[in-house]
Structures are given as structure tokens and as C-alpha cells.
Amino acid sequence: MLYLYMKNGILTAATYVQKGGVGKTTTAAHVAVAAAQNHDLNTLLIDLAGTQNDLATHFGISIDEESIDAPISAVFGDQWELIRNGIDNVVERMTFDTGEGPVLIPADPGLGAADNNLANVPREERYDRLADFIAEDLAATYDFVLVDLPGKEDNIAISGLYAVEDVIAPLRPGAFERNQLENLEADLQEIRDAYPVDPRLAMVLPTMIDRRTTQSSEFVADIREAYPDIAGLQVVSTQNIGDYQEAGSTLFAVDDDELYSTGQEALDAYSTATDQLLQTLRQ
């Protein structure tokens, strides 16, 4: 799910889905690059999805603890004010250039402890720290902030959802594909009921689609039938995504003549999804 909202002149989004292997991080990377390259938005990616730094790997960035002056996990702690006041240009020192337009604040090993520590914060104060960081530290510099959230219902994820509203959900065909749409709606309702957040579905994006299989065709048809107004263009399965991700880039960094036809089709689909996303947000 990709959550969006406009506040204080800044566009923000967060990818989130309670299912692994659906292309969540790949979607975040490609949407961020499309926003930067196709829409000339000053774009920042924040990786909160875990300590493996999948977004950094996606862009070929090597991260170690010594290279991070101020970790993103500090934003969720009680000492953030002291840190931001004690480090000059703190946000710049948190970021790494992706080489494709957006800059990245990587995940760090402290995120697990930060999630645990948030459980000790009073509920009325627990989930607003990321939203405050975006509004107070990022809004003056960036047009678009895209956050990749963990695929589970923890305090870090809820903190991300607290600051946003509209949702795009990347989903792929699989053994339980016909249950995914029902599960998606149920997950959103459970979050609304349990936490002070109100995510709303703005787009469902079919990913890893193989048109040669009946399963994929039926899955895309199910999405279009269930969500005729918010179904995104299908992203076809292509070896190019995995190959270039392993090499440290998105499809946007590749010359068109080096892509398979499926790679070009996936690239176009991510561009179209970003166009649709921004248009929905600005309505």
C-alpha cells in the first residue's frame, strides 16, 4: 500500500502492505525515480522497512553504521531534539545520493529498538514523531517524501500511516490471489479500528504479471472488477527488474535499447502509475 497526503506544501507517501514479495520496495524505488525524473520533484526516500537496507541495495549504495552521522531511528527517540540541534545540516548528513534523482535516508540497526521503545510512549504521543520530522525538518527542502514501511503492524509502520491517508497497494498473483483483495480491505479496517489512523485505498497496482498465464489474467481482471476507478496499469514480470536491481539501479537508469520489451513495458507502467498517483493526490 502506498499512502499519500499533502501537508505544509509537501507531498508524502509510504509503501505498506502486510504481505512479502509483492514488489513493495521495487514500487517505492521506481515511483520515487519517476517523480524526480518525470515530474521534476525534489524527492527523498526513507527506508523504514527493516535493517537490510533493501532500498540502498536497489540503488547500489553501500551502507555501514560508521557512514551514518544521524540514523533515522533517532527520529523516533526522546533525544531527537538534542541531536538535530547538535549536528549542523543534520538532514543532509542523513542522506545518500541514489544517482537517479531521489536521495535516500537508509534504514539502520536501531529501528528495532526504536519500535520497542515507542511501546513505552503514551499512546496519544506515540505515532506523531515521523509526521513531525517530515513537517519540521523536510518540508522546506523536499517536494516529495516517500517512505518504505515494514510489512507488519508495528509502531514504526503505524507511525508512518499516522501521517498519511491515501493508499496504493502493489499486489502480485499467487496461490491465494483471490483472497488478497478481501485481505487488503480487512487489513485497512483493522488498522482504522485499532489505531488513530485512517488509510484510504487510492490505487491497487497489479505487479509481476505474466500475461501467458491464466492466473495472472484472472488476477488483473479481478482487480479491475473490484476497483474499476483505482486499478493501476499492470506491471508485467520481467527479468530486467531483478538484473538491474542486482546491478544497483532501477529501470529508469537503463537505455531503452538495453531493455527487453517486458522491461520497457514495466518501466512505462511505473511511469503511468506515478502520473495517476500524483493526479489523484492533486484532485
UniProtKB/TrEMBL annotation:
InterPro entries membership: AAA_dom, DNA_Partitioning_ATPase, P-loop_NTPase
UniProt-listed CDD domains: ParAB_family
Pfam families associated with the record: AAA_31
Record-annotated AAA domain positions: 14-194
Identification of the protein by name: Chromosome partitioning protein
Upper taxonomic lineage: Archaea, Methanobacteriati, Methanobacteriota, Stenosarchaea group, Halobacteria
